[in-house]
Amino acid sequence: MPRVKRGKSANKRRKALLKHAKGFKLGRKSKYKLAKDALRHAWTYSYRDRKVKKRDFRQLWQVQINALARKMGINYSRLVHGLKVKKIELDRKILSTLAKDYPDIFEKIVEEVKQK
Q1: pTM of the entire structure?
Q2: Of the candidates 78, 63, 71, 77, the residue with the CA atom closest to the CA atom of residue 106
Q3: So where are the chain's domains?
Q4: Which tens digit of pLDDT belongs to each residue from 72-110?
Q5: Which residues are within 8 A (CB) of 62 and not within 5 positions of it... i.e. 6 or more apart?
Q6: Long-range contacts of 59-67 (CB under 8 A, 24+ apart)
Q7: CATH for 7-114, among 3.40.630.30, 1.10.1900.20, 3.40.50.2300, 3.40.1000.20?
Q8: Full 3-state SS string of 7-21
């Protein structure tokens, strides 16, 4: 059985991993062992924080909606409940955009919700 030399494939694997570590500080950009560990952490955080990002934005939108809704005499929870009762299907992102950029339209929505 012939001898298998694996240097080429091992170097290719290490080179690919170091390419992903470009921009890291100190030895984590050039030393394989440190780069591998740094990338393991980086990829874990990036996966986790894609979920956290969605959570943070939803929280921000709720705060923005609540701020303008309170100026118009209704709080956030009553507004969202009223929207569901009236079957007005607007998500929080759209409501937040309306509250920030088009307060007159948002005011009409709030008035619609306030009506019994």
Answers
A1: 0.75
A2: 71
A3: 7-114
A4: 999 999 999 999 999 999 999 999 999 999 999 999 999
A5: 76, 92
A6: 60/96, 61/92, 61/93, 61/95, 61/96, 62/92, 64/96, 64/99, 64/100, 65/92, 65/95, 65/96, 65/99, 67/99
A7: 1.10.1900.20
A8: HHHHHHHHHHHHHHC
